[in-house]
Amino acid sequence: MESTLQNFHGLKNVLNYRQIEMIARARTHRVVNRLNQEPNLFKIYGDIIKEQEKRGFIEKIKENEDEPQRIHYIPHHPVKKDSTTTPIRIVYDCSCKENAKSPSLNDCLHSYPPISNDITELLTRFRTQKFAVTTDIEKAFLQVGLHKSDRDVTRFFWLSDPTDSTSPFTTYRFKSVLFGATCSPFILNATLLKHFKENPSPTASRITQDLYVDNVLTSFTAEDDLMQFYRDSRCLLQKGGFNLRSWNSNSNRLRELAETENVLDSSNEVNILGMRWNVADDKLLFAEVDIDSTMGK
Question: d(Cα 148, Cα 155) in Å, to the nearest integer?
Fold first, then answer.
């Protein structure tokens, strides 16, 4: 599915892309040097970019391409995650500025809040019925195409040889909506709602009311209805180019089916909109927070 990062008209000449290009190069060099101290993370970082190119989310800039009217470069850096499968993720800094007075890419984008469901209502519906289920959309933002005329404002650098930290940089650009652009949550939300509207069904209505960004959490009275939702929702999202993964439920039937189809989240505890869900005990938990006991004036 394709959408557009908009609207740059009237602001395109404000961005000094030559200056931001130097900043992006310098910051990428620092990232390479830092990752080079941890060979495993260095490899994982390069593998993420390699996979994004393989799946068509990004592309290399060809040397003989004509220079477009609008160009911008985005620095990026790693953030460590508490995950055994993906210990780091790449963050693209669309808020990077040439200086304090210059605009960032995010400053030049229209930013509208997505049409989000109320979290309290979501959690209430999630616990109302006997059989609860959670799932999320795999790489949701990257599944939404970026208009060709906007792709060159999402350029970034990485090594031409991901195994050699001294190799020259190659220039990439996004072909899809990237997480980090201020308008991306709205674009993803609008794309999903449009898809559900064009494919009306009880399942589409259910997901529309129980969706939060790229997460779905809902519950059913009958286990058979839960199983039907699993099949119908996966089919509905696949029709739009999305994949529902990381399924978890207090239903053993659903967990067994999801495991056979390699979309099961086997964790005993699942993050639920800021809370924790112990699937085995079927209880919602609050994460412990260390409170500063220091007395103030």
Answer: 13
